[in-house]
Amino acid sequence: MKTIPKDPMILLSFLNTQLRDHYASLEELCRSFDLKAEDLEKQMRSVDYRYDHSLNKFV
Q1: What is the tens place of the pLDDT at every residue in 14-55?
Q2: Which of 58, 31, 33, 28 is nearest to 43 (CA)?
Q3: H or E stretch at 57
Q4: pTM of the model
Q5: How many C-beta neighbours within 10 Å does residue 38 have?
């Protein structure tokens, strides 16, 4: 099972790196890690970041 960081700022860096280097979309990343996009987006909103589909990263 793949795990992700718990700390929101480390998670932000991890997600954006994964999206940049390995995944064409948040949905693809979530399938690979068996996660729900809504849950990740909620975590990132807690630190004022939103997923931008056109950029494929949290901004």
Answers
A1: 999 999 999 999 999 999 999 999 999 999 999 999 999 999
A2: 58
A3: strand 57-58
A4: 0.93
A5: 9
CA distances from 18 to 3, 12, 32 (A): 13, 10, 11
Half-sphere exposure of 3 (CA within 13 A, CB side): 3
The residues, any chain, with a CB within 8 Å of residue 41's CB and separated by 6 or more, are 26, 50, 51
Q: Look-up: residue for tokens 């950029």?
A: 55
Convert the pLDDT of each residue in 41-51 to its tens digit: 999 999 999 99
